[in-house]
């Protein structure tokens, strides 16, 4: 049994989206919440890539933010190498934080436009006090730039002098600066051209092999996920509906929602395939459907689905949350 | 060894010289200087502003007499018109006032006081406004609501009325002999207290926008402190509109100070600013002594105009959309 780097249990978050206090009192409206993540469990083993997939608005990016500490969960726990991040003290948290970093979606917004690359990559080195002299820090920055395929001279430039792919590589270099074991990648390739996507993904898998990194990979691009990850979790409206090995999920999806997603992947083998489009839309998380959240769109829905909420059941190699599987 | 130094020295010097010319030429070719070179109005404003600034700051050097020193002037010299008129006196280029003080010297010292009050109050409101705006925009929520409601409340006070209020209160609290000394603080406090909101609002808006960006989230994931994120990450991205407001605010602050002094709640007659001089000269205007009021008024108008023109130019240069 390989030890798990991260494990998440019953992770939940509610966002308060109530109208301001005064108008709420005047109009006698109750407080309203968006239950963005409604109880998610998974664990990621050392050295593997775990992907979270789902339509927009299903809460996958929120899970990434919960893991990185940008949001505080309203319930549940995030355990990173034996430390529960939710209950950890501030000083201890800072120490544990070194072990995980995040790569963001938009390479144009994730680098401070007024900072030079050397300062951007050097920031975690300063914050965690990893270098003992200026020369040492500079050497580390150059080494990091080489690792992501950029030249050492690039450290003197500003972010706007780089292309999207190069910026994303700078972002990766910054994430690697504190020598983390675990990287949270929130759609790192979705803002890039297809050719550049491949480049960035290749660098990421090279680094994974070389440094033994563990990835949580958030994406909505099924072909990227099938190429890049070891295990996949399919999310729907704040819950995981199916978790398993990439090959199993892609070749024989069990959950009706997963089946629907797989049907929608374009493929070169079946160019003139008759397509069943993914029907319906994701319901509003403000007012989720009763029972199984997927039942209004599900082709095999029964009466029970509207009243009973399915839990993730372990079926050996994979887990599925569906009453009819 | 000595030979070595002797042979190395000239080359080192030459390298230094070459480096300096490089720096000078790179500055000369930079966007900002290029835009300055192509705007004659701005060049003229800059020069006029610099001349007034130098004359004001160096008042001790450039003024023939010290108008603050009662032994340096005499009532026998009172009401002498400027030197180019028939009854002018070569000692007093711009004439003298009712007490026999040299108007030219008064003017230089007055410019110094006006500029000092303008700069200090703008600097204070800038620092206060930027810090409150950053806190407001970064933390949001209740802190934001509190700071912004205070700003809204302050915005509803006209500067002049607020200054009259503060000065009235100060006159009530402090003994009579201190009134002359505290007046400068009263003015600075009034201009600062009624001027910081504009900075706070501008910075808050920009900070709100910047805090949502991913580079701020990245800094938070690294565990940066809030102060570090606010001042090192967000501040540099919000500072250019602040500089523009600041420059334009200097002209406004100088004018406000002049208005207050003109109304009699500003600088006392023994430490006259431009406004005090205009106020004093105004009383003698109808008895024919035009020179006492005209020259301070002209300097005030020219100074405010030049600062405003330079401010407009800075706004255009820092805003890429207007280029």
Task: Explain what this protein looks like in three dimensions.
By secondary structure, chain A is α/β, with parallel strands linked by helices. Chain A has a domain at 4-99 and 180-279: 3-Layer(aba) Sandwich (Rossmann fold). Chain A contains eleven helices and twelve strands. In chain A, the strands form two sheets. In chain A, strands 6-7-8-3-9-10-12-11 form an eight-stranded mixed beta sheet, with helices on both faces. Chain A has a four-stranded antiparallel beta sheet with strand order 2-1-4-5, covered by helices on one side. In chain A, strand 11 and strand 12 (318-320) form a beta hairpin. In chain A, helix 5 (134-147) crosses helix 6 (164-176) and helix 6 packs parallel to helix 7 (194-211). Chain A is globular, with a radius of gyration of 21 Å. Chain B has 323 residues and is mainly α. In chain B, helix 5 (103-139) packs antiparallel against helix 11, helix 11 runs antiparallel to helix 13 (290-318) and helix 12 (274-284) runs antiparallel to helix 13. Chain B is 75% helix and 0% strand. Chain B has a single domain, classed as MetI-like (MetI-like fold). The radius of gyration of chain B is 25 Å and the shape is globular. Mean pLDDT of chain B is 84; it is low at 3-7. Chain B contains 13 helices and no strands. Chain B has helices at residues 2-29, 31-37, 40-57, 59-62, 103-139, 141-155, 159-173, 179-193, 196-211, 214-221, 226-263, 274-284, 290-318. Chains A and B meet through helix 3 and helix 4 of A and helix 10 and helix 11 of B.
Summarize the structure.
The complex is a heterodimer of chains A (325) and B (323). Chain A has 325 residues and is α/β, with parallel strands linked by helices. Chain A is 33% helix and 22% strand.
């Amino acid at each position: 049994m390989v030890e798990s780097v991260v494990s998440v249990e019953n992770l939940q978050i509610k966002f308060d989206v109530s109208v301001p206090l005064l108008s709420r009192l005047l109009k006698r409206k109750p407080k309203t919440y968006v239950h963005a993540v409604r109880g998610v469990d998974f664990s990621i083993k050392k050295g593997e890539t775990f992907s979270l997939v789902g339509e927009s608005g299903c809460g996958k990016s929120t899970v990434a933010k919960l893991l990185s500490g940008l949001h505080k969960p309203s319930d549940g726990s995030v355990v990173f190498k034996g430390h529960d991040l939710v209950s950890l003290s501030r000083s201890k948290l800072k120490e544990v934080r070194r072990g995980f970093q995040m790569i963001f979606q938009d390479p144009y917004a994730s680098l401070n436009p007024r900072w030079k690359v050397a300062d951007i990559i050097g920031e975690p080195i300063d914050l965690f006090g990893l270098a003992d002299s200026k020369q040492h820090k500079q050497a580390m920055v150059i080494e990091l730039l080489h690792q992501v395929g950029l030249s050492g001279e690039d450290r003197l430039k500003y972010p706007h002098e780089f292309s999207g792919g190069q910026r994303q590589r700078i972002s990766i270099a910054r994430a690697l600066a504190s020598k983390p074991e675990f990287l949270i990648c929130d759609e790192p390739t979705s803002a890039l051209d297809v050719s550049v996507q491949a480049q960035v993904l290749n660098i990421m898998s090279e680094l994974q092999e070389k440094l033994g990194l563990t990835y949580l990979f958030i994406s909505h691009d099924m072909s990227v996920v099938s190429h890049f990850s070891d295990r996949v979790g399919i999310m729907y409206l704040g819950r995981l509906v199916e978790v398993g090995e990439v090959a199993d999920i892609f070749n024989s999806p069990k959950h009706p929602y997963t089946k629907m997603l797989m049907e929608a992947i374009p493929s070169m083998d079946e160019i003139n395939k008759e397509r069943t489009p993914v029907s319906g839309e994701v319901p509003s998380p403000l007012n989720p459907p009763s029972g199984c959240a997927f039942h209004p769109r599900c082709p095999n829905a029964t009466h029970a689905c509207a009243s009973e909420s399915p839990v993730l059941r372990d079926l050996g190699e994979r887990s599925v949350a569906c009453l009819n599987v | 060894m000595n030979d070595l130094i002797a042979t190395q020295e000239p080359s080192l010097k030459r390298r230094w010289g070459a480096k300096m010319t490089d720096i000078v030429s790179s500055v000369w070719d930079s966007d900002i200087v290029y835009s300055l070179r192509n705007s004659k109005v701005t060049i003229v404003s800059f020069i006029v502003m610099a001349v007034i600034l130098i004359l004001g700051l160096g008042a001790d050097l450039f003024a023939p007499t010290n108008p603050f020193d009662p032994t340096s002037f005499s009532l026998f010299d009172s009401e002498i018109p400027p030197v180019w008129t028939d009854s002018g006196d070569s000692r007093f280029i711009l004439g003298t006032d009712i007490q026999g003080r040299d108007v030219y010297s008064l003017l230089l010292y007055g410019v110094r006081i006006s500029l000092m009050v303008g700069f200090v109050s703008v600097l204070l409101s800038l620092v206060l406004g930027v810090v409150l705006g950053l806190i407001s925009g970064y933390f949001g929520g209740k802190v934001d609501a509190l700071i912004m409601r205070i700003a809204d409340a302050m915005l509803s006070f006209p500067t002049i009325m607020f200054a009259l209020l503060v000065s009235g209160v100060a006159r009530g609290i402090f003994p009579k002999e201190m009134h002359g000394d505290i007046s400068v603080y009263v003015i600075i406090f009034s201009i600062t207290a009624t001027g910081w909101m504009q900075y706070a609002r501008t910075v808050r808006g920009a900070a709100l926008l910047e805090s949502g960006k991913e580079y701020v989230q990245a800094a938070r994931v690294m565990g940066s402190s809030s102060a570090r994120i606010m001042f090192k990450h967000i501040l540099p991205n919000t500072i250019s509109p602040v500089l523009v407001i600041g420059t334009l605010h200097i002209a406004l602050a100088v004018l406000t100070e002049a208005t207050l002094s003109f109304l009699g709640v500003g600088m006392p007659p023994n430490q006259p600013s431009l406004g005090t001089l205009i106020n004093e000269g105004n009383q003698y205007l109808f008895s024919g002594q035009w020179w006492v009021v005209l020259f301070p008024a002209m300097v005030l108008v020219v100074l405010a105009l030049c600062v405003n023109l330079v401010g407009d130019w800075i706004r255009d240069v820092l805003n890429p959309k207007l280029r």
